[in-house]
Structure prediction request, 147 residues.
Amino acid sequence: MTNKAFWAQKLRSAIKAADSGPSENDLAGAPILNYWRPHVTRHGAPILWGMASGHPRLAEGWITTSQLVAIDVDRAWARTASRWYVLAQPFSAYEAKIAKGLGMEEAPSGFVQVDLPGYRPLDDVSLLGQLLMAWRDRVRQDDTGGD
Prediction:
């Protein structure tokens, strides 16, 4: 199996799992992603970036996830090609924490700039939802022989 076929299968399985939603056990064993922020790769794939704890393969600290296939901000979970994540505070809370430490009442939009080479931040959750739908359609097209 090629690497592309392997990841295509992981994405299809993750989409199927996300369509059903996480079980209590899925989330109980999931890593926690704090100060998370959506990003988009140069190929248009959505990912999350944030401070992970409890990850089975990575040390605690800032990570980028595999491709994001679903997110429910209200229920505090995300599904990537690899696993479920429990969402803690968004990146805006990190910005507010830094602003408060500097004596500011609130953090202006884009207050903390972090450059992740090859990624662009995506702070608009409604736009993220549209991107996820387009990404999932693209994965489905790839599955049926499309580009």
